[in-house]
Design a protein that fits this description.
12-stranded antiparallel beta sheet, 21% helix, 4-stranded antiparallel beta sheet
Length: 280
């Protein structure tokens, strides 16, 4: 996974192939009308959005989709500290489809795009997700098959227009939405009240006005020893915009000051921090 405004995880799901096969099977015979193909909404707002979309759970078989959804939610809890996802969309981009530059507020602290696109054998140009990374520069992310892309939805972003293909089987196909409900997630003997009390006392002195953390989501994994001390911490996801790198490092040092109750063994804690850009 890359760190920065955009982060990607390739080979994300072992179910990607099965999801893709179900999609292809429904378009295999264009002369055959199936009710499952009638769920698509052609969402068109001039100069904003043009895309075919449907709730993902309406399109795939219930057993397969529910397995994928559970895996996605569990991964978000373990690696982001986000305990749920918004109802994901399945979107298909054929020639003429695109998303103009926009921001998402207040859907969730972290947007995701999971690609089922046959990127290596695509028959179109365009289709990349783009994010504004500066006043005149952009980051471009290819929707490679089985890639999960994460980014700060408050950063201006969009999808480059797809050109050259009208067959849905060869267009840009993605499942997307937002990770939501950020709160600590842990594995170990610490009880909920012990985690909450430790964080309430510790974070008050750790995170203060002296740190410039910009705006976005910073999720960390803390290894808590049996004696309650924070042994180590590492960044899992960082979508902070406008943060001081030195202050982010300083935060890591300060987190080791937090103390939790003793237990016979340690606890692994995923800690999401939602930061807001300072005004003034």
């Amino acid at each position: 996974m890359k760190f920065g405004m955009v982060q990607t995880k390739d080979r994300f799901s072992p179910l990607a192939g099965a999801l893709r096969r179900e999609f292809d099977a429904k378009f295999q015979n264009p002369h055959q009308a199936e009710s499952t193909r009638f769920v698509w909404d052609f969402w068109h707002i001039p100069n904003e959005y043009t895309v075919l979309r449907t709730p993902a759970y309406h399109y795939f078989s219930a057993k397969l989709y529910n397995r994928f959804h559970r895996d996605l939610v569990e991964w978000g809890r373990m690696n982001l500290g986000c305990h749920d996802v918004s109802p994901p969309w399945l979107s298909c981009y054929v020639s003429g489809c695109r998303q103009e530059k926009h921001v998402d507020r207040p859907h969730g602290p972290l947007a995701f795009v999971f690609s089922l696109t046959k990127w290596g054998s695509r028959r179109f140009s365009g289709g990349e997700t783009f994010l504004q990374s500066g006043r005149s520069s952009q980051d471009w992310i290819e929707p490679k098959f089985n890639r999960l892309t994460l980014f700060n939805p408050s950063v201006p972003h969009g999808v480059r227009e797809v050109k050259g293909c009208l067959d849905p089987r060869y267009g840009r196909l993605v499942i997307h939405g937002w990770f939501v409900n950020p709160r600590p997630f842990w594995v170990g003997p610490l009880q909920a009240t012990e985690v909450q009390d430790g964080l309430d006392l510790g974070l008050e002195s750790v995170v203060d006005a002296s740190l410039n953390l910009g705006g976005g989501l910073l999720s960390l994994r803390l290894a808590i020893a049996a004696d309650g001390a924070v042994e180590s911490q590492r960044v899992l996801v960082n979508t902070l915009v406008g943060a001081s790198p030195g202050d982010v490092r300083e935060l890591g040092k300060r987190l080791k000051q937090i103390r939790f109750p003793r237990h016979r063994r340690g606890t692994v804690l995923t800690l999401p921090l939602i930061c807001e850009t300072k005004k003034g």
